[in-house]
Amino acid sequence: MLPTTFFRPAIALTLLLLSQTSIAATVLVAVAANFSKPMTEIAAEFEKATGHSAKLSFGSSGKFVSQLENGAPFEVLLSADEKSPQKLEQAGLAVPNSHFTYALGKLVLWSATPGYVDDQGKILTTGGFKHLALADPKLAPYGAAAVDVLKGLNLQDKLSPLFVLGENIAQTHQFISTGNAELGFVALSQVIENGKIAAGSGWIIPDDLHAPIRQDAVLLTKGAENPAAPALLDYLKSAPALTIIEKYGYGLPTHKRGAHANPS
Questions:
Q1: Environment class of residue 240 by beta-carbon count within 10 Å: exposed (0-12), middle (13-18) or buried (19+)?
Q2: Where residue 260 falls among pLDDT bands split at 50, 70, 90?
Q3: Backbone angles phi, psi at 72, to 5 degrees
Q4: HEC sequence for 175-222
Q5: Tens digits of per-residue pLDDT, 121-143?
Q6: DSSP assignment, residue 58?
Q7: 121 with 190, same domain?
Q8: CB 61 within 8 A of CB 32
């Protein structure tokens, strides 16, 4: 017969695994459409690291706010702006002071056609196109940033008749990639690969041409008791998550790595 000490490590490991399984949870996450690719990667790494899982829904920040005001069951919001999380906190739909910036967005004027958009965006003034796609500025911060750019270049009045408005940045990208619009404003994360625009042609908009796109996350009240919700927000600040965020062309936030998202 084997000594009882032989079994103790195995028993301890079994109990540990059972404990981890019992506390593993799933968090429902509303994610701004521009952050679809990096968040899909982050969610997979989050599950490996913590045992928790994240169920992701993608869309426009404005629509998510409306849905949450009407009882949507989301537990975490990753917005494309900073105003939406603050609005939800003020309305009592998010945990007070739980919002933080998880990424700084980058805007690009993009066409699916190689060589169509020059690297200075001069095509906006030279013209020759019939459709200019952008996300609805009333719903999507990237659309609002695009309007900022056009206003700064004194082109809004001239080009607004050519606007094709997407409900969100994903639909805007679809308009351009399918040729329904010759060019338009999308998130750099949608078209970047290995540090450069992967297909078509584009002009990465200088940051000083529009208000900063501070993308904030917030813990919603419906997620306050779900351990997976604050765990996900903590993971967004970790080195592995920040590496993924940077890979997709976002600027990195300046908050301290590993800081807790859920205030005590």
A1: middle
A2: very low
A3: -55, 145
A4: HHHCCCCCEEEEEHHHCEECCEECCCEEEECCHHHCCCCEEEEEEEHH
A5: 999 999 899 999 999 998 888 99
A6: E
A7: yes
A8: yes
Same domain? 232 vs 182: no
What is the DSSP annotation of 220-262?
Answer: BGGGTT-THHHHHHHHHTSHHHHHHHHHTTPBPP-SPTT--SS
Which string of DSSP letters, residue by residue, matches 115-175?
TSS-TT-THHHH---S-EEEE-TTT-HHHHHHHHHHHHTT-HHHHGGGEEEESSHHHHHHH
How far lies 56's CA from each of 14, 76, 130, 134, in Å?
31, 10, 35, 24
Task: Please state, as a whole number, how many other Cβ atoms lie within 10 Å of the Cβ of residue 50.
Answer: 19
Instruction: Clarify whether residues 54 and 116 are in a common domain.
Output: no
Nearest to 188 by CA among 38, 40, 7: 38
8 versus 219: the higher-pLDDT residue is: 219
CATH of the domain at 76: 3.40.190.10
Q: How many whole angstroms separate alpha carbon 224 and alpha carbon 98?
A: 10
DSSP 8-state symbol, 35: G
Nearest to 109 by CA among 124, 128, 125, 131: 124
Domain extent at residue 47:
27-104+214-247
The candidate with the shortest Cα–Cα distance to 250, out of 202, 158, 188, 185, is: 188
* CA count, 13 A, side-chain hemisphere, 32: 32
Would 15 be classed as within a structural domain? no
Rounded to whole angstroms, the Cα distance separating 99 from 210 reads 22
Question: Rounded to 5 degrees, what angle do the CA atoms 154, 159, 164 make?
Answer: 135
Report the pLDDT value the prediction gives residue 8, as an integer from 0 to 100.
56
